[in-house]
Amino acid sequence: MSSYSNYTNSPCAACKFLRRKCISDCVFAPYFPPEEPTKFANVHRIFGASNVSKILHEVAPHQREDAVNSLAYEAEARLKDPVYGCVGAISVLQRQVLRLQRELEETNADLMRYASCLGGETMSAYGGRRG
Amino acid sequence: MSSYSNYTNSPCAACKFLRRKCISDCVFAPYFPPEEPTKFANVHRIFGASNVSKILHEVAPHQREDAVNSLAYEAEARLKDPVYGCVGAISVLQRQVLRLQRELEETNADLMRYASCLGGETMSAYGGRRG
């Protein structure tokens, strides 16, 4: 949960951005504190305040902070890279996983060759790893 | 580029969804063909038609298909998982990369131990792999 609480007189970053009164049960207030104005500006620019509000109402209260943080991450990624957004990061990671799996397979094959050079006597002590 | 072209009489999926006339230079038409109505419905639900249109105008024409496909991927992921969206896939992949890197390091260490058992004579033929 964010450090924001309604005893402060400042409207939350969302209400300030949208120039509206920040009511006591404002759905944005716990996740968009006034000291982080860019977080709301970003998600508003990419998803729109109304869609963010819809998502917040769709998820359980204890999951809202995670939902806001993942939306803020996606929004920032899309602003940095309008073509691929955070899907670009997924592609990079998928390629990295494939490369590591291939390297691990090759290293395991090397390990097997070494083991056969040693007559396989100590193979059970090491074993091959499989990704 | 999508197979959609304006010689068809059907409005694109976006204009049909938004109940508006599909003009000849409609920014959505090449990427939201009428036979794929869900693709537009999803991006509209998560990003809003106006934000999608803004992003399309921001990127170069040759990058628009990639932009639409990444938006459609993100929208589908967010509809499936409203809390984490495609950021959930990023977390899973990041953990997989860390696990594979650790396994590769351990396998390389095993390889080094085997090499020292063999007196290091043939080590240069194998070498250690580093993730």
TrEMBL record, chains A, B:
Residue runs in coiled coils: none
InterPro entries linked to this entry: LOB
Ranges of residues in domain LOB: 10-111
Alphabetized Pfam families for the sequence: LOB
Domain of life: Eukaryota
Matches recorded under PANTHER family: LOB DOMAIN-CONTAINING PROTEIN 25, LOB DOMAIN-CONTAINING PROTEIN 4-RELATED
Name of the protein in question: LOB domain-containing protein
Organism name: Arabis nemorensis
